[in-house]
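Re: the 149-residue chain
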Amino acid sequence: MTDLRPDEQEVARAEAQAVLAVAADPDYRGELAALIAAADEGSLGDEEARTLERLLELALQAGRIRAVYGPGGEQAALRLYRRLPRGAEVGASARSVTEALGGLSGRRLESISLDAVGPGAYTLSVAVDGATLSIRLDRQGARVGSVAT
């Protein structure tokens, strides 16, 4: 269960209503209707959370949330997204990368490079005092690719 704060509730309901207005698939329309009802109640079950998660990912990436609801609406959507399963996973992967980078602290930087490996996918390589850390950055988040000493 995910409880919604009033500002999160407003953005969740409005985004679901906007998509419902143009959705053609009857099954998806049913998911959106369930999400709207749950948002009205102020609490999401697992299914509604997954539906909202997909909506927020797309709307945040496209910049729609900020454009329609302003910075406050964007902050509410981001705060809510981080509490949903996928957002929590992305946060955990970022913390894992930060922890790995912390292991390089105090060492002399030898080189750093960023390589494009595909559409929206990059590898950041950091070499320090004989150790190399490779970090993968893509739509799934940030994660340690490899560590060589």
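The chain has a mean pLDDT of 93.
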